[in-house]
Amino acid sequence: MYVHLDLGWLHHPFPVNNFKIISQAQIQTLKELGLSTIQYDPDKSEMASALTGDEDLAADCLPDPESLSSLAPLNPQPLHLDAVEQWHAKVKHMDLQFLQAARGYEQLEQAALQQPQLARAAGEQLIANCLATLLPEQDVVLHVLSDSSANASSAHGVNVTVLSLLLGRAMGLKELALHELGLAALLHDLGKLTLPTQPFVCGMNIGVLDTSKAQHAHYAKHVGESVALAQSMGLPPAVTSAIAQHHEWADGSGFPLHLLGSDMELAGQILCLVNAYDRLCNPPDNHVSPTPHEALASMFTTHQRKFVPAVLAAFVRLMGVYPPGSLVEMTDGRQGLVTSVNTAYPLKPRVLIHDIKEAATLTLADLQASPQLGIRRGLGVHQLTREAVCALLPHRRVSYYFDSAVGVQPEKVLS
Fold first, then answer.
1. Which of 117, 204, 369, 407 could form a disulfide with 80 if both were Cys (CB 3.0 to 4.6 A apart)?
2. Largest alpha-carbon pair distance within the chain?
3. Could you give the CA distance from residue 122 to residue 127 in angstroms, rounded to a whole number?
4. How far apart, in whole angstroms, are the C-alpha atoms of residue 324 and residue 320?
5. pLDDT at position 110 over 80
6. CA 375, CA 370: separation in Å to the nearest integer?
7. Would the pLDDT of 139 be above 70?
8. Domains, the chain, with CATH or none
9. Residue 147, Ramachandran bin (φ over 0: left; ψ between -120 and 50: alpha; else beta)
10. Spatial contact of 365 and 79, defined as CB atoms under 8 Å apart
11. pLDDT tens per residue, range 210-256
């Protein structure tokens, strides 16, 4: 029997959400999940004995009516598709929103050294604009954007701010704490104005590059400079503490104070993780950029000890296993680009899909409304067909912005 689990990735032990039951152990695990109903796909389900000729195996591999609480047929509704031109219009609008925020950041930079109160006012307004969307009790959709004209420092500042606010909201921070977290995220690298660093150095590669102790020490100074600029603006200790901790790691290997995760404030834990994620997605040299899925996977493997487990788990629940910007292979073999995710349903993103057989056809599938279609695995850029690369145009820089959730659009395929 082929079943579908409508559960978050961290809430069950199976490697995928859709799979065929082939053992009694799987049935026992399903029972232990305590679900009242489990969906199954009749079209993909078949008697084990039909495949093996073994009736005993069939009895072992297929659940009887008492094995699971309830089995509900998966409704084979037609794929819900969003109009690609509407998606392009949405991305264009989000691009403008992101660029407006980036311009605000650049104004803040220009005023920071000589007019700190003016810089603070610019930062306060930018965060207030973000919170106007985040604070109402509504779902939020996170979009990956096309390559904007924002410079690298402003793009990084806005990205870290957007993701920090989303993660802080997901972890239960209230309005004042979110506002302070947003300001810390916005200002965390401002010290580089007074202390230029090497163009290809960032906190995630400082131990990988052939940097001397002197170069490392020089880079680390920007943390203190950022704190000093925030203090000159009269910002509260919650802001300056989070800025001071944005390069600390939970295992004590960070800088400048080598704090452990237990020594850090929640805002600092969030900021250091989000800052690391954006640097992995957008390395300063921009030579080999992993996809967001690859970046998130490396945070769970190579860099796992650097982050507080609860914060890392919350980030995955927020972004999904395939964050916007990830390249994926669908369960039907087609290749696609994850364009957005409703943060309340991270395992059901929207995916721009390229049809290999009909190279001119792109469809935008909303997996929230299409349970029969799913993501099989993540892909690297080198795994895309040439036609898919040209059609999907993977982003050279991964930038994010959000808006309130919207409903599913009528079915449409655009050629």
1. 369
2. 82
3. 9
4. 9
5. yes
6. 11
7. yes
8. 2-73 (no CATH), 89-138+145-319 (1.10.3210.10), 324-404 (no CATH)
9. beta
10. yes
11. 567 787 888 899 999 999 999 999 999 999 999 999 999 999 999 99
Q: What is the dihedral of CA 53, 56, 60, 63, to 10 degrees?
A: 80
Give CA torsion, residues 278, 279, 282, 287, to 10 deg.
-160
3 pLDDT tier (thresholds 50, 70, 90): confident
Amino acid 6: pLDDT = 57
> Residue 168: which of 203, 132, 204, 131 has the closest Cα?
131
Tell me, yes or no, if the pTM score tops 0.85. Answer: no
Residue 257 has pLDDT above 90, yes or no: yes
- The two three-digit tokens of residue 208, written as one number: 């990988």
- The answer to whether 177 and 185 are in contact (CB under 8 A) is no
Each as own residue / partner, the long-range contacts of residues 33-38 (CB below 8 Å, 24 or more positions apart, any chain) are 33/5, 33/7, 35/5, 35/7, 35/68, 35/69, 36/69, 36/70, 37/69, 37/70, 37/71, 37/72, 38/3, 38/4, 38/5, 38/68, 38/69, 38/70, 38/71, 38/72
Mean confidence (pLDDT) of the chain = 81
Only one residue has tokens 């993780």, namely 273
Question: Does pLDDT of 201 surpass 50?
Answer: yes
Nearest partner of 369 among 354, 349, 352, judged by Cα: 349
